UniProtKB/TrEMBL annotation:
Protein name: MoxR-like ATPase
InterPro entries: AAA+_ATPase, ATPase_dyneun-rel_AAA, CbbQ/NirQ/NorQ/GpvN, P-loop_NTPase
Residues annotated as domain AAA+ ATPase: 36-201
MF GO annotations: ATP binding; ATP hydrolysis activity
Domain of life of the source: Bacteria
Pfam families attached to this UniProt entry: AAA_5
Length: 291
């Protein structure tokens, strides 16, 4: 397997080129996941850049991104593969009346009728691939058994077609918001990286890198305000992406200072629950009418 990165320092440089500022821990873990061919489990609160890390690795290396979005009720048919039953039925109906079932069976269980889902698609790709299994903790426990098979041997068994082994192992990134504890069996197969909200200095640098034209002083004001909002007991703390959106909002409005009035006017960019906005207005002493 050809490595995507030659060193942690290269990870830092190439991710920075696509706008993702990686610290030493992130760069080292990404390098090792690539070098060892191990899946990478990235855990942490919502909005700290877990999904963006996988996207950035894909963009930095030119690898194709295949994404499996997990949710309650996700099953094998949606994650791995399923048969195109409607097309199979049409083929059965069109078969000659004297054709036996064995011939019909062999005819309809072929590649022509196979519908790839993300896991199988990633396994079958011969090109460099990043497989993002997003919000793994939202899937049912049964899905972890499917992931164990795929991530252990990087192969999939389709009873009608046989075993499909990876032509080239994808770099696998699993993300989790820790809504539930993932199984120890799954964790054993992965390298682990915990992400939290960045230090103010790093978040300021992210804003400066992602929002051309913003002044450093305004970026620092913005990051301090976001930090104050995250310290409140609110339903949903602002994500890094929402910090960046807030910076772009201030530029669009032509604001060069983030005073209390500006915060109150634009609070909906970062706080998406009315109770959170009310708490911020009350505890930060913001104008209630947005002026």
């Amino acid at each position: 397997m050809t490595a995507l990165f030659s060193s942690p320092d290269e990870v830092v440089r190439r991710l920075a080129d696509v706008g993702y500022l990686a610290d030493e821990a992130i760069a080292t873990t990404v390098f090792l996941a690539d070098a060892l061919g191990k899946p990478l489990l990235v855990e942490g609160p919502a909005g700290v850049g877990k999904t963006e890390l996988a996207k950035a690795v894909s963009a930095a290396t030119g690898a194709g991104l295949v994404r499996l979005q997990c949710y309650e009720g996700l099953d094998e048919a949606r994650a791995l593969y399923e048969w195109n039953y409607k097309k199979q039925l049409l083929r059965i109906q069109a078969a000659p009346s004297d054709q036996g079932w064995e011939d019909t069976h062999d005819d309809i269980f072929t590649e022509e009728f196979l519908l790839e889902r993300p896991l199988l698609a990633a396994i079958r790709r011969a090109e460099p691939t990043v497989l993002l299994i997003d919000e793994t903790d939202k899937a049912d426990v049964e899905v972890e058994g499917l992931l164990l098979e795929v991530l252990s041997d990087f192969q999939v068994t389709i009873p009608e077609l046989g075993t499909v082994a990876a032509a080239r192992r994808p770099l696998v990134v699993l993300t989790s918001n820790a809504a539930r504890e993932l199984s120890e069996a799954l964790k054993r197969r992965c390298l682990y990286l915990h992400l939290d909200y960045p230090r103010p200095e790093r978040e300021r640098d992210i804003v400066l890198a992602r929002v051309p034209g913003i002044e450093a002083e305004l970026a620092e004001q913005l990051v301090r305000t976001v930090g104050a909002l995250r310290a409140l007991e609110i339903k949903k703390a602002p994500s890094i992406a929402e910090t960046v959106d807030w910076a772009r909002t201030l530029l669009a409005l032509g604001l060069d200072e983030l005073d209390e009035a500006a915060v109150a006017r634009t609070l909906g960019v970062v706080l998406k629950h009315v109770s959170d906005q009310q708490r911020a207005v009350r505890e930060l002493g913001l104008p209630a009418d947005g002026r």
